[in-house]
Amino acid sequence: MADAAAVKEYTFRWEGTDRKGNRIKGDRIGPSEHFIRLQLRRDGINPIFVRKQSSLFGKRKKKIASSDIAIFMRQMATMMAAGVPLVQSLEIVGRGHENPSLGEMIMAIKVNIESGHSFAESLGKFPLYFDDLVVNLVEAGEKSGTLEALLDKIATYKEKTEAIKKKVKKALTYPAAVVVVAFIVTGILLYFVVPQFQSLFQGFGADLPAFTLMVIGLSNFVQSYWWMILGVVGGGFYALFEAKRRSAKFRRLLDRLLLKIPVVGDILYKSAVARFARTLSTMFAAGVPLVEAMESVGKAAGNIVFTEAILRMKDQVATGQQLNFTMQQSSLFPNMATQMVQIGEESGSLDAMCAKVADFYEAEVDALVDALSSLLEPMIMATLGVLVGGLVIAMYLPIFKLGQAI
Length: 406
Known about the structure:
Layout: H1 2-5, E1 10-17, E2 23-30, H2 33-42, E3 46-52, H3 66-81, H4 86-96, H5 100-114, H6 119-124, H7 132-144, H8 147-201, H9 210-246, H10 248-260, H11 264-285, H12 290-299, H13 304-318, H14 323-330, H15 335-347, H16 350-405
Antiparallel strand pairs: 1-2, 1-3
Helix pairs in contact: 3-4, 3-8, 4-5, 7-8, 8-9, 8-11, 8-16, 9-10, 9-16, 10-11, 11-12, 11-16, 12-13, 13-14, 14-15, 15-16
């Protein structure tokens, strides 16, 4: 898996002849020209030339999103459940997919299987799209002869996690979008509108109100140093993303702070609990041993605070402690989740209890996102009203005073 992660893939333009001698051409994604030629020959195409596309001038492909992977897993589960053989299922799904990038990746997986690799090994060659959890579950399904059932569990898991991701993204995107719009509107008013009033006020020959002077001063600053403001804002966001990407300590600090934000922190916390329960339920139901499952559960947590706690719990479970006890020791999980896990361990139905916990907290996240949206709408209107209304009042105050003097 570690070696596969280092493999880079490129887009290759190819041309060749099919079994009937017809000349055909197209694009494929792969790590090397040799790999593409092998793919083409496996598909009954005799390659005439294969050329790597320039990243600057080559045709840009649509990116493969996590939602595409969820749809792919559901398609495979449906095809396999209908009795269609694995290779033929990949052929049908790959050639019929509307995303060319995903279609080519599926065809590459098919070629790997035809060359003697297992389905799990073939998926493992694309770690950017198929994590350890998916690969481990597929491997378990292949070994136990229950691949169709496991693919259905993976598809359900992916669909549930995608749904909760969209809810969390909605909760975070809405306020962020409003802040950006407020920033842009205020900047436009200060840069273009206020200077028009300023030139008008210069002919008044009277002292301006302090509020108006403050806004004019702010407008002058924006006009003189707009490039510096944009640079600081852009540089700040870039530094934030780079620090998050490069520093585990900063990610830990940021994730802890996010969990403490009112309402939003509650959404992130409950979504992490739901993801923990959903992943554990899926892995355990597939027959993966608890200690081994905890590794994948930790990586899928989506929050470094939860990831580190789950990996510590894994070490404690490996020494013989019960999962519910390690959850209590972590002081991170809600009492309800801990009690449900305890009941599941005692009754031998841990996967079912974890699924119920996931269902409950996913519903909680849904309700919180709806509540946040309802709460933010009046706050957004009030914020924009204060910003825009304040600037308008500051510009009209001298006119009101002049009217009173007349």
